[in-house]
Amino acid sequence: MDFKELWQKVPDKWKPFSDKWARIIIWPRAFFSEWDHNEDYKHVIIFNIICGVLAGVLKTILTFGGEFSAIIRCPLTLMLLTFVGGSVFYLFLKLSGGEGDIEPTIKMVGYTQAIGVFSYGIPTLGPLIGLYQIWLLTVIGEVLHKLDTRRSLIAVLLPIALFMFIMIMISTILGLKFFGGILSHENQMF
């Protein structure tokens, strides 16, 4: 098989990914409602890897090669966020009265990483685009866990707020320790 034959097969292989990606971004409620809950993890993992590589390539292009390591870092980040974030999200959905199981929740969180192509790929505006993922996660709470929009949104925002609070506390403690050490030295010559 030569390169030309291989290149001609690319659209056939690319179409299922691009169709799934578009359905997640444009029609998330329909996608998550119709999605097969018994789907194998390998589909989610492959989806995350492709989204991560695309995000890494986009970031490398937009930073003129300055973030070349993003091609490796982004897929790993998306995978970590899928499994760890999905588990934490499941816990907060259950605390909010959700009815779903952990395995489909983690898989669905993996599919919300579709927005990661832009949120990790675009250096400055990406995090603002990433706010759309909050909506995608809220839809998961509604569709899979049978929560109303308000309770689902609270289950999404609560771990984010808790994480931010913990990071602020750690930064404050480390900052006080650092500057307290500097300021406490008497008779020090600068």
From TrEMBL:
A GO cellular-component term linked to this record: membrane
Domain Yip1 residues, every copy: 23-169
UniProt keywords, alphabetically: Membrane, Transmembrane, Transmembrane helix
Subcellular location: Membrane
Protein name per Swiss-Prot or TrEMBL: Yip1 domain-containing protein
Lineage: superkingdom: Bacteria
UniProt topology in membrane: Multi-pass membrane protein
Parts of the chain that traverse the membrane: 44-64, 70-93, 114-135, 155-179
